[in-house]
Amino acid sequence: MAYDAVSVEGIKYLLPELVLVSGILTLFIITNLGDAKIRLPLTRLRIPALLGGNRFKWNSDPRLPGVISVFTFILAIAMLIQTLGGDTCNDLVEKFCAETTILTTTGNNPVDLLKLDSFSRLFELMFFLALLLVSAASINRLQADSNPSNDDLDQLLDNRRQVDFHLLLLISGLGMTIVAMSMNLFVLFVGLELASLPIYVMVAFHKESKAGTEAGVKYFITGAISSAIGLYGMSLLYLWSGSLQLSVLEATWAAMATPETLPLFGISLLLVGFGFKISAVPFHFVAPDAYSGASSPVAALLATASKTLGFIGLMRILMIITLPETGDAAVWMLAFGILSVVTMTWGNLAALGSENPKRMLAYSSVAHAGYMMAALVAVAAWKNGSFVENNSGGVMAVELIIGAIIFHLFVLISFKIGAFMVISHLETEDEVTDMSSLHGLAKREPIIATSMFVFMLALAGVPPLAGFMSKFLMVTGIVQVASADVLTNTEIDLIPTFLGMHWTFFLAISIFINSAISLYYYLRIGVLMFFEESTTRLPLPKVSILRFVILLCALATIFLGINSDWLVESAIEAASTLFTNS
Amino acid sequence: MAENKLNDGMYVIGGLFIAIAAMMFLSPISLMEDDWVTLPLIGLPILGSLLLMGFSSAVPAWRKESISETIKYASLGISLIVLTITSLMMTDILMNVHWANITFNQYMYEVEYNWIESIGAEWHVGIDGLSMPMVWLTALLVPVTIITTWNEKKPWYYHPLLVLMGGCLIGVFVALDFFMFYVFWELTLVPMFFLILNWGGKERKYAAQKFFIYTFSASILMLLGIIILYLLQDPSTANSSITGRSFDMHEMIKNAQQEVILGNIWLGAGTQKLLFVLFMVGFLVKLPVVPFHTWLPDAHVQAPTGGSMLLAGVMLKMGGYGMFRIPISMFPHAVVEFQMLLMIIGMISLFYGAWVCLGQTNLKRMVAYSSVSHMGIILLGIASLQPLGFAGAIFMMFAHGLISPMLFGVAGAFKHHYHTLEIGSMRGMAKHSPWLGGNMMFSWMASLGLPLLAGFVAEVAVLVALWFEFGWWVIIPGITLAITAAYYLWSMQRTIFEGGENTQPPESLGDEKPKDIYLTEKVGLMALAILIVIFGIFPFIFFEMMSGYSSELIESVLLDEISGRWG
Amino acid sequence: MAGDVSVEFWVATIPFVPLLTFPIILFLGQYFNGKDWWKNILKEGGAISLMSMGVVLILTSMVVAQFIGEMHHGQGKDILDWITFDVLRSDGMTNGVNLGFGIYIDHVSLMLLFVASFLCFLINWFSIGYMNTDKINDNRNHRFYAEFLIFCSGMLGMVLADNFLWLFIFWEIMGLCSYLLIGFYYEKPSAASAAKKAFLTTRVGDVFLMIGLIIMWNIYGSLEFDVIFGWNYFTNPVDMTLLKTALILMFIGAVGKSAQFPLHVWLPDAMEGPTPVSALIHAATMVNAGLYLVARMFPIFTGTADSNLIGDLADVGIIIAMIGGITAFMAAGIAFVQNDIKKVLAYSTMSQLAYIFTGLGAALWFASKGKSELALFALGASLFHLFNHAMAKGMLFMASGSVIHEMHHAHHHISHGEHEGFDAQDMTNMGGLASKLPITSTAMAAGSMSIIGIPLIGGFWSKEGIIAKVWKAAIYDGGYLLFIPAILLLISAGMTGFYMSRMWFMTFAGKPKTKVAEHVHEETPWIKFPLVILTFMTLGGIVFASLHFVNWVSTGHALHYDLVYEMKHAFLAMDKEGVIDSTFLILTWATIGLSSLIGPIIAMSLYGGNLKDGEKAIPTVSWLVKISGMVRNRWQFNNKSLAESGLAEALRRRLYFDDLYDWFCLKIIVPIGLGAALFDKKGIDGVIKGIESGSQSTSTWIRKLTTGSARDYIMMVALGSLLLVGLIWGMV
Amino acid sequence: MIDPSWVAGLGVIIFSIGLWGAFTRKNAIIVLMCIELILNAVNLNFVAGAAHYGDESGWMYAAFAIAIAAAEVAIGLAIFLSLYSKHKTISLDEVELLKN
Lengths: 582, 567, 732, 100
Description:
heterotetramer; B: mainly alpha; two-stranded antiparallel ribbon; two-stranded antiparallel sheet; 4 strands; D: mainly alpha; elongated
C-alpha cells in the first residue's frame, strides 16, 4: 500500500518517528520551564522569555534529560510494535514483521520515499534498542567532572550537558530511522547525515579531555571526507541514471549491457562512504581513535548503530542495485571479497596486541565488519554460481545470509554495547586507558566480570551465546552457496572436491581462522579479570542503571543464543522483504 | 559494600530464574514422563551449579567461608543424584533395557523437543551402548573428583564448577542433534577454562588460554563439517525449519546408511572424505594425538587436581566418542580409505608419547604424555576396523577414564603434600606417606596395563584386533608396552622407593614433616582403585554393551565397504 | 574309571581363597599395626595367611586325590564368559567369540598345583618364623603376607587356567608380586633397582609372549586349551611358519619369566628380597611358570605330528634346548665364583631350570618328529625334574634363609645392633656351621645332593632322564644340533657337583671363618618344620614320580613299573624293552661320575675341612664333613692363580651382561627419551609458540600503521577509494 | 546553454582539488574547506544531472546538499574550537595522542 507521507494515513505509519520528534521537543521545553531565558540546546544562546525566573528544582536535575530520552525511546518502541500488523503476522512472538507500506511525496506524480516493511521495522527496532541502552546508560553518566557534587551550579551545568547529549541521541535516532526506511539514495544519505552529524558531536562531547576533542576532530574530518566522497559517487550515479530512486537505479543497472565507467565510479565511491561507516579496511583507521577518545556509551553507539547504518546502505546498494539476477558476477564481488578478508584479519591481528580495551573492542568491531562483508560477497556468489537451489522447503541461501547479517547486527547490540557498558562502568572510577583497569575485576565485581566474559565469548562466537548463532548462520549461508555444486557431485575424490569449491568457500575458512585468532584476545580479557590481581578490592562505584543495563545485555546475549528462534525468523523475514518488494 | 554484593547475587539468581522460566515458556522443554535425561542428567547439574555459584557470589567475601561446607555438600548431592540415576539406567532398572542388544542407531531414553525450530535444531537426547559407559563414567567421576579435592581453595566456586562441567559433558554424550552436540562440546571448555585459570599452577594463565584456543580452533573445523552435513540434507527434511533442514543426528546417520536419497547417492566419496577430515581434526585434537597434543601437557600440568581428573578422565574421551558417533557411523567409505592413516597416527602417538614420557622430569607432565600414548591405542582400535578393536577402543576410553583420574589425583595429592612435582626430587615416599605411595603405585601399575586391572582388557583387545588387520605392526605397541613399564617403574623407583635408612623428603618441603593424604583423598582414590579392579576383573559389565555396539556398527555401516575392498 | 571324573566348579575357588584373604590382611594390618594381638596372635597376618594357604592345600589335595590316576586327557570347564565379541574375517563375520575364564586339569597342572600349594604352605610357615623375628620387618609384615597371598593366587590361577589368555593374566600378576616382594625393602636402593630390573626384564619377555598369544589366537581363533589341543590339522590347516613364530615368541616370554639366557639378569639381583620370597618365587614356583608354558605347548607338537606334519615344528624344540644348554652352562660357571649364599642358589636355579628347558626342548623335538613315546619320557623327565628341583630348591633357600637369619642374630648379639660392614649372606663369613645348625645343615645337604644328582636321591632320576633323552635325540634321531646342548648339559652336571658342594662346604664344613659364625645357634621357631618335611620330600622324590604326575598320557603303568624303569634307566641305560645300550651306559655313568664324584671332590679339596675341635655335627652330616676333611688333607691345592684370572673376573662380573644392559638403558634408551622430550618441547610446541609470537609481532607492526595523524587517515581513505575503484573497474 | 558534461567535468576537477587538498593540508579549517569543495563538486553534478534529464529532484538534491554542507561546517567549526581550546592548535599533525 502506498500513502502520501504527509497525509493522515501516512503519518499514522510514522508514529515512532513522531514520538522521537515530540521527545526532542519535550526535552527542549521541559528543561527550560520556569526559566526566564530559554536556552537553545547545544549553544550558550539564551533567548529571553516573557515569563518566569529561575528553573525549578525538579527540572534542573541532571538525570531528567536522560529519563526523558529513555521514556521517549521506550514509547517509540511501543509505537513501533503497535504499527506492526496485518493478517499473516500479528503474533510478535512468532515473528517480527510488518505489512509493506510505501510512503510517497505529495503531488500528482508521487515518488516513493520511504518503505515500511519488516526490514525497515526490524532495523528501527535495533536502532531504538541501541539508543535506549545507550541513553539509559548515560542517565547519570556524563558529568562535567568525574566527581559529582550537589552544588547547584554544577548540577545545572550537568543538566545542560545532559540535555544536549540526549537531544543529540534523539536526533541521531531520527536520522537512523530514515536510513532504515528510505527508498531513495538521497533520502538515505540525508538520513545518514542526520544520524552522523550528532554522532560526530557526541564523539567530541568529552571536551574536557584532550583525547575526547582529538577523537572528535579526527572522526569528524575523516567521516566528513568519506561521506563527501560517497555523496560524490552518488551524484555520479545521478548523472548516469537521472534518478536516485532505488528501483530506477536497479532497473537501469540491469539494463546496462556492458559495464560503464560512470556508474562503476559512482558505486565505488559510494562504497567508500559506507565503508567508513562500517569501518572496513582501509577506512577503519580512525575507528580505534574515535572509540578510545569518545565516552564508552558513544563508542558503543559507533560500534552498533552507526555500523548498522553502513550495512543498511551496503545492502541497499549491493543487494538491490548492483546484484545481477543471474549469470555474471557482481562487479564488486572480488573487491569486496579481498576487502573482507583483509578487514577481518587486520582487525583481529591488531586487536591481538592492543593494550587499551576500548581500542581492542574497536579493532574487534573492524573484524566483525569483515565477517559481515564476507557474507555479502557470498550472496553475489549465489547469484553468479551455477548452483540451482532446490528450494522445495527452505529459504534461499541468499536470504539466509542477509538474515544472518541482520541477526548479527541485532545481537551485537546486546554484547557489544554490554562490553562497552562494562568499560563505561570502569570509567566511573577512573580513566580506562589500558588493560590494567580490568585487572582483578572478578574479585571486585563478580557479576560484572562474568557478564564481561559472556560478552567476550559471544564476540568470539562461542556457543551457545548469541554471537555464535550469527556466525553460524553466516557461515552456513556462505558454505551453502560455495559448496553445494561440488558436494552433490558424487563422482569425485577429496582433492577435486576441495578445489571445486567456489572461492567464497575460503571466506568461510577465513572466518573460522579469524575466529580462532580472535579468541586469543577475547580470552585475554577473561584472564585479566579472573586472574590478575588488582590494587584494590573495593567494588566499583554503585551506578545501578549501568549494572542493570549490563545484566540485561548479558541475559540477552545468553538468551538470544539459546533461544534465537524468534530473532532468526524475523531476520530472515526481513531479509526476504529486502529482496521481494523493492 | 557487602550489602552491594548481596544485591548483585540476588540479581543473578533472579535473572536465572527469569531466564529459566522464559526458556520454559518459549521452548517447551518440560520434564515429561519418560525423560530421564534432560532435567535429571543435564538440567540439574548445570542449573544447580549455576544457582550455587550465583548464591556464592551473593555472599559477601567475609562470610564465604561459612557457606563453603553447604556448597560442597550441595555439589556433592547433585552429583550423587546424577550418579544414582545413571547407575539405575546402566543396571536396566529404570527401564528394561538390554544395552548389549540395541541395534545400531537406536537409542534408549530418547526424547526430542523443539529447540531452535527456525534452523531445525532440536533438543534430542538418547543413550546407546556407546554413550552409556561414557555417561556413567562422567556421572561417577564428578562426585569422586569432588571428594578427592574436597579441600580445594574457594570451594564455593570450585565444586559447583565441577558439577557444571559434569553436566556439560553428559550433554555431549547424550546429544543426538548436531547443533546440541556442538553447543555442549564447546560449553565444556568454559568451566575447564575457569578451573585451570583460577585453581591452576604457576603457568595457569598461559595453559588455560592455550587449552581453550587450541581445542576451540580445532572444533571450528568440526563445525564446518556439521554445516556441510546440514546443508547436504534434502531441504524438505524439516518443515518447521526455515532452511528446510534439521540437525537430527539420528536421522542423518540413518540416511548415511541408506546412501541413496532422492535418487542421488547422498554422500559421495569426495564429500565423505572431506567431512571425515573435518570431523576428525576436531576429534583428534581433542583426543589428542601427536602432533596436535601440545595443549594437553600444559593444561594438565597447570590444571588443579580436580580439573585434570575430569580433563583426562572424560574430556579426552569426547574425542574418541565423537569419532565413533559421527565419522565412523556416517562415512564408511572415508573410514576405510583413511584406515592406514589413522593407524599410522595412532602408532606415532602411542610410540612417541611413550618415549616422551621417558624423558619427563615433571610427574604430571609424564602422566599427561602417558595419556597421549594411551589415546593412541584408541586410534589403533578404531583403525583396526574390527568389532574387537572398536570395543577395545571404547573400553580403553572407559578404562582410561578410571585410571587417568586416579593418576592425576595422586599427582595432585603429591603436589599438595610435598609441594613439588619433580620426579626424583625425593625418595622413599612409601615410608613417609604409605597411602599416597600405595595409591600412586597402584595407579601407575593400572596405567601400564597390568592384567585384572581395567586397562589390560582394552589393550589386549586392541592388540588382537590390530594383528588381524595389520599383522606385524603389532610389534610397535608391544615395544611401547615395555617402554611404558620402563618409565613408570623408573619413576616409581625414584619417588616411592629408595632413600636408605633416612629417607629424603624433597627440598621443597622445607622443615615441614611429610604428611600422608587426607581422608577425603583416600576415599576418592580408593573408590577409583576399587572400580579399576572391578572393571578389570569383570570387564563384561560394560564390555558386553560395547562389543554389541561395535558389532552392530561394523555390520550395519562398515561391512559393505570393507568387503568391497576384499573384492 | 579313567576319564570319568569331571572338573567341578569348586576347583575354581582355589586361586580365589588367597585372593579374597589378602585385602583382609592388608587393611587389618594397616589399621592395627603394632597392636599386641595383631603381632603375637595373628603373627602380623601370618596366621591368617597360613590358614588361607592351609585351606588351599586341603582343596588341592582333594583335587589331586580326585584326579590322580583317573584321568587320561586334560579336561576343561568354563566358569565365566569374560569378554564376548565378534570377529570380522575376510570370509565374513564370526559371531560370539568368547574369551572366558575356566579351569583346565591334566597331569601337568595337577603336579604344578600340588607343588605350588604345598610349597606355598610350607614357605608361609617358614615366613612366620623368618619374617616376624627380624627387626627390620617391624610394621610391614602384613604387606609381606598380603603380597605373598596375591602371588599364591596368581600361581594357582595360572596353573588352573584353561586358556592362554588367563594363563598370561595370572602370569603377569605373579610378575607384579615378584616386583613388590623383591622391592620389599624398598628403602634399599639396590632392592628398588632389582625390583625394577626384574619387572622390566620379564616385561620384555611378556611383550613377546603377548604377541605370540595374539598370533596363536589368530591361528586357532581361540586361546582355549581344549580348542588348541584338539585342533584337527587335516580339516583346518594352519600356517606352520606362523605357528612356529608364535611358539618361539611365547618361548621368549618363558625365557624372561624363567630367567634364561639372555633375559636372565634379573634373577640374581632378585635375591634382594626377603629369603622366603627368594624361596617362593625365584626357586620354587614363579620361575616354573615359563616351564609350565613350554610344557603346555607339548600337545601342539604332538597334534601336528599326528597330522603328518612331522618335523615342521622341530626347530622350536632345538631352539628351546639350545637356550637351555647355554644357560645351564653359563649359570653354572657364574655360580663358581659367587660368595653370596643366595646368589649361588640363584645361579643354580637358573642352571637347573635350563636343564628342564633342555629336556622340554628334546621332548618337543621328539613330539614334533612323531616319536611320541620318547617325547613322553623326555617330558616326564623334565617335569619330574621340575618337581624335584622345586622341592629341593625351595628347601635350600629356606635353609639358606635359616643360615642367614641365625648369622644375623648372632651378629646382632655380638655387635649389639651395629650393622655396618657385615654381610650375613657372605659365605666367606661362615664355615663350620654344621655343628651349630644341625637341621639346617642336614636339609641343605639333602637339597644339594638332590640338585647335584647323587644317585638314588630326588633329582638324580630326573636329571639322568633329561641328559639321556637329549643325547638320544642328538645321537639316534638326527637332531645333530642337539649335540651342543647335550654336551653342555653333561659338562654342567659336573659343574653342578662342584658349585653345590662348594656352597655346602664353605658354609658348614671347616673352621668358623669369623667370630660371628662361632656364635650361631639354631633357635628361631617355625623354621625347622618345613625343612624337615622337605628333606623327606627331596630324598624320596622317586616315590612321587610314580604318582602319574609326570606322564602326559598315562600308558597304564603301575606304580612300580615306572619306578623300576627309572632306576633301570638311570643305572643301566636300559630302555623299555630291557635292551641295554652301551653308549648310554657309558653316558649314564659318566654323568654320575662327573656330578657325584669329580665335582664334589674338587670342591672338598678347595673348601672342605674338619670342624673346629670339640664341635660335633649330627650324624646325618658328620660323615660329609669328615670326608671333606679327609679329601682336603689329601689333595689340598692352591687355586689362587685361577681365581684371579680374567675368566674368574668375567664370571664375577656375570659375563658383563648386566653391564651391557645398563649401558643399553643409560646410553640408548634414556637419551632417546630425553631427546624426544626436548623435540616435543622445542619442535612441536615450538611451532605453536612460534605462531603465537609471530601473530603478536604482526599485531605490533600492524598497529603501527594507525599513526594517529588524521592526515594519514584521510590519505588512507583516498587511497582506499582509488583501490576500490581500481578493483571494481579491474574486475570488469 | 552549457552542455551539462562540462559542468560535470568541472565537478571532477573540483573534486580532485578537494580530495588532494584534504590530505595534503595540515590546517583543519583548510581541510574543512576542501571538504566543502568536494560537496560543491557534488552540487555541480546534481545540477548538471538535473539540467540534463530535466528532473526537478536534482535541484532539490543540490539544495539539500548545501544544507548538509552548512550543517557540517557548523559542527566542524564547533569541534575545531573545542580542539583549539584544549590543544591550542588546529593543525592536524599536532594531535596524535591516540594512536596504535
